[in-house]
Amino acid sequence: MLLSTLFCIILIVIIMNLESLKGVGDQTLKLLTKLNISTIQELLEYYPYRYEFIHVVRLQDCVENQGMVNAQVIENPKVMFFKKNLNRLTFRCMCDGKIINVTIFNRSFLKNKLIPAKLITLVGKYSPKTNTFTASDIKLNMVTTNSIEPVYHLVSGVTNKQINTIITNALTSPFDLDDYIPNYLNEKYQLMPKEEAVRQIHMPTNATLIKKAKVKLIYEEFFIFMFKMNYLKRERELHNQGIKRGLTKEVLENIINSLPFTLTKDQLSTINDIYNDFISPKRMNRLVLGDVGSGKTIVSIVAMALNKLSNYQSALMAPTEVLALQHYETIKKILPQVNVGCLVGSMTKTAKKKTIQGLMDGTIDILVGTHAILSENVTFKNLGLVITDEQHRFGVNQRNIIQNKGTMVDVIYMSATPIPRTYALALYGDMDLSMIKTKPSGRKEIITKVVAEKNIKEVLESAWQELKNGHQIYCIAPLIQNEDEESNLNDVYKLEENFNKAFNNKVPIGILHGKMKKNEKNEVMASYASGKYRILISTTVIEVGVDVKNSTMIIIYNAERFGLATLHQLRGRVGRNDIQSYCYLIANADIPRLQVLESSNDGFYISEKDFELRGEGDLFGIKQSGDMKFKLGDINRDKKILLQCKNDSYDYLENFDNNPLYLRIIDDIKFHN
Questions:
Q1: Range of 364's domain?
Q2: In angstroms, rounded to a whole number, what is the distance separating the alpha carbons of residues 318 and 322?
Q3: How confident is the model at residue 672 (pLDDT cuts 50, 70, 90)?
């Protein structure tokens, strides 16, 4: 009876609504919704991003470092207001037997709360010279014991104290959370129990227990993620029947020998991987990672040629119209005997209708396009291969839509973001992996130089020389238009003005940025590709795939604003022929990390460095993808845990059958796939 009653209490707490918690009214509920919190479980999984270790010290300890001291107010505060809603609050108080001046900015609302004789705690720095304590925070309730305060990400209208109080109320009620880690792994790694870990994350006892709680929760979210990846891969291997193709090595060699250039070792290796996938009875699900300019496109063309010889159609989907049209022209040139169609948004209705008809009756062998391919009215007679270029720019649903336009379709994902192999194997564990590191022979290394903006004259002189040699130049700005007069950031229009002035308005300049209409962007890129524009000033919209072989210089302003991987991608717009190319990184400060680009053209090495410095989000472009958003884990900082979870979750595939939590995960996987 007692156990039954206890179970009912726990069950009630689990299913009760947020508004049943003390401190959560209608207004707070709306604000919590902005934080994507709608259940108690989501509330308990809203983890702090840092902690304040509250430790009261003596006044003299706050001279060189910020500290926390207790004090007593001895006079009413005064407030002085400045422009732009700035204000300064000043008052005097007694601290460690000494009367001191206190200053704090933008806390005018404290004026009526800081009454004489009130005991408070000041956080900040003390200057003996002026006898002034400059506070960054004032705690109206004096701190009497050392403590640890969790700090949460907030939205306007919600305070840290509110979140803390609401979570504390939830934690002090009976609660139960599912622990997804199998008992034998909890014991093997001596992981903290799930409920204790959640309690320590929000109501920490000490730094050691915070660390142990994080290890538990990070391991759990990585374990679940890697279990999904391993399960998907196993299911595809077991059940995904592929297309039976009558291909031979001789057919492959004939295609390779017909190409107008020699393939690199990595290109040949990747093509061989694809060939083996084709002749396998299983569906292909391959990720091709290639450095900038490594020749991924030709690999995809060989794959589509093989698919054509198997009497199947291919579809290549690119993220932008410019890139799609570029692929279209390249494929037509290399495979003149194959009927290639194009489907992009700017085409006329008549042209689209003709292309769609060609797909339906099978007269089009290869379709190249953008999101337009996903339209319901686009149907194929016999689709056998789908290639997604820059795969991270498409959502899972979009990739599934195009794959479902055929039966047993083979899939190749291509990415020009060179991801370290270790992480790629973990994060894309449900795919087979090929890597293209080497670049086509004959290409010269791009000479990269970091230059202070004050020395821009020497860069412009080099640019003028390239223009005189008949070459073209990219120029990259971080902003479209800088509306902050005090900012030192360059924008495309400011740079256009500067270049016109430097070259006496004698050089045709094109402008390209994300706010332009699609047809305007296409016109500008076409004009630059044809040589009408000699200089293209752009934001990072030209980062991926654009190939204008006559471009031999790229100048990137405010380079300190970009990650190494992004800079490497931008640099890859030049050096696409046998002419010496140059990249100038213009920086307003001495940024040591930029020297990595001066010393290396290896995208995989650069990605490792960028990964160390900036974490996974910028590198992989995965901030756009909900698939890889972790609440606590960081795949760089916690890589050992990630890789351990990859192995542990793979082993667990043989033992999860009776675990209802994992049966639920599998049901969810099946629903979304």
A1: 249-280+294-415
A2: 9
A3: low
Three-state DSSP at 238 gives helix
Q: Which of 493, 532, 529, 498 is nearest to 513 (CA)?
A: 493
Whole-Å CA distances, 340 to 313, 343, 478: 10, 10, 37
Question: Same domain for 379 and 304?
Answer: yes
Strands 50-54 and 147-151: antiparallel
Cα separation, 181 vs 644, in Å, equals 13
Q: Smallest Cα–Cα separation from 243: which of 305, 313, 142, 184?
A: 313
Measured in whole angstroms, how far is the alpha carbon of residue 30 from the centre of its chain? 28
Report pTM. 0.71
Average pLDDT in the 352-367 region? 95
The single-letter DSSP state of residue 56 is B
Which three-class secondary structure state does DSSP give residue 251? Answer: helix
Supply 496's token pair: 């256009």
Per the prediction, the chain carries an average pLDDT of 87
Indicate whether 286 pLDDT > 80. yes
Report d(CA 383, CA 370) in Å as an integer.
Answer: 17
Domain boundary among the residues 568, 600, 632 is at 600
The answer to whether residues 300 and 388 belong to one domain is: yes
Tokens coding 209: 């227990």
Query: Based on the domain organization, do 116 and 263 belong to the same domain?
Result: no
CB 135 within 8 A of CB 124: yes
Residue 626 falls inside a structural domain: no
CA distance 246 to 384: 13
Taking CB atoms within 8 Å and a gap of at least 24, the contacts of 134-137 are 134/103, 134/104, 135/102, 135/103, 135/104, 136/66, 136/104, 137/104
Taking a C-beta distance cutoff of 8 angstroms, is the pair 179, 163 a contact?
A: no
H/E stretch holding 5 reads helix 2-15
Residue 256 falls within a domain, yes or no? yes
Q: Is the Cβ–Cβ distance between 285 and 430 less than 8 Å?
A: yes
Residues 514 and 594 reside in one and the same domain: yes
- Please give the pLDDT value at position 623: 36
Residues 6+ apart with CB under 8 A from 149: 51, 52, 54, 160, 164
**Domain check: are 327 and 380 in the same one?**
yes
CATH of the domain at 141: 2.40.50.140
In a domain, 73, yes or no: yes
Output DSSP code: residue 381: S
Smallest Cα–Cα separation from 537: which of 515, 566, 508? 508
Hey, CA dihedral for 24, 26, 30, 36, is it positive or negative?
positive
In this prediction, residue 291 carries a pLDDT of 86
Closest CA to 216 of 189, 234, 235, 254: 189
Q: State how far the Cα of 133 lies from the Cα of 102, in Å rounded to an integer.
A: 5
> Considering only CA atoms, which of 375, 386, 442 is closest in space to residue 414?
386
Are 255 and 402 members of one domain?
Answer: yes
pLDDT at 664 over 50: yes
Q: Token pair of 412, please?
A: 């190749």
**Do 385 and 314 meet the contact criterion of CB atoms below 8 Å apart?**
yes
CATH of the domain at 309: 3.40.50.300
Q: Which of 550, 568, 600 is the last residue of a domain?
A: 600
The two structure tokens encoding residue 355: 């292309």
Contact 40, 80 (CB under 8 A): no
**263 with 410, same domain?**
yes
Pair (480, 366) in one structural domain: no
Cβ proximity of 472 and 462 under 8 Å: no
Residue with tokens 């704090």: 104
The Cβ of residue 129 has, within 10 Å, a number of other Cβ atoms equal to: 7
Residue 14, pLDDT > 50, answer no
